[in-house]
Amino acid sequence: MTKILVVSDTHGSKSELKKLILDNPCDYTFFLGDTTNDIDDVKKEIEIPNLYIVKGNWDIGFKYKTREYLKIDDIKIMLVHGHGLDVKNNLNTLIDLAKKEKVDLVCYGHTHIQRENIVDGIVFVNPGAYSNFKGGQYTFAVIQIDNKKISVNMLKK
User: pTM score, two decimals?
Assistant: First the structure.
């Protein structure tokens, strides 16, 4: 079984992010942007194995890509922040992209709202925001992949 920590939209909550990672040891960590300097600072202090990062709309000019693809246990995964894909209004553009790319799992952020959807067999996970920015809560997700089955746990601090 593989465990994945998924976090997005920390907006300066570096110490909280560090504590989250230390308190939730996983095989992989996905950071979905806004703001990548938070995760960059945390990874200077602690080891984060199998860390994948995409940049968000606050991360313009940063070294990270807007999209990452990887495969874990035969599950093809796309990571994206979501800005530019209209995810605040609906998932239609993201769904079309996921189908085109033939992925099994999509992790995205940007909306600050936790959400899990399954569309045509594709699992879409938004961990919400790990920050109280704009009145948000400290929310995140832990995904487990076991025997090609994807299980999602939406969590909050």
Answer: 0.96
